[in-house]
Amino acid sequence: MVGKWRRRTRKSRKIRNKRFNVWRSRLSWYGLPLLGLVIGTWATLRFSLLAPEPPANPENICEIFREHTVWYDYARASEEKWGTPIATQLAFVYYESSFRSHARPPRTRLWGLIPWKRPTTAYGYAQALDPAWGEYLVANDASWRTVRTDMQYALDFVGWYNHLSNRQLGIPFSSPRQLYLAYHEGRGGYARRSYEQKPAIQSLAQRVQNRAFRYDTQLKQCEAEFQCWRWYQFWPFCKADN
């Protein structure tokens, strides 16, 4: 009886091993390529094909939000969380990336001919540098889905950075020029007044402020359009502020 039991056990083990080898073979032939296809398709959709085109009329914030209405929701959420006005956030993105999701600084040229390294690690809508973005991810317990090419997180980053500039440097949210100088030069550079030796940066910061004020004036005329656009939003709970 013991011998029969052992033979039966060995036979059962051989059958299980055979089935396991068959499934392992099928997985190697079909499963892994299929998994790679699924991951590749997801990554393409997540980081490339679904990235919206820059707005057709970036000069008018009402037209920007009419074309990309969800951007209003992102900007409003960032304002409520961190304090930077919607118009200021959009002015930053206008001058940082021209609303291009995968924007990077152009590569330098080796010997004037060969494409070489990029001057900085700035990337995405907000042109966030690697160190600042890493600090943002840690400070906000962000997940792997938090990327610089997503307008939601780009605007949240702008709001978070300006919140720190307000708290640490005392820059009011009503001063886009000063906020942008701290954003461009870093809070340490701003504290050292490094921008005083950079007239081009001072001129850019003034243009950011002018655009922020112009966007704010425009937004006052159309903001009500974007506060009740979802099916579950209804008056008076999403009524425009007057």
UniProtKB/TrEMBL annotation:
Organism domain of life: Bacteria
Residue ranges annotated for the Transglycosylase SLT domain, each copy included: 51-222
Residue ranges of coiled coil: none
Matching SUPFAM superfamilies: Lysozyme-like (SSF53955)
Protein name: Lysozyme-like domain containing protein
Signal peptide: none
One Pfam family matching this protein: SLT_4
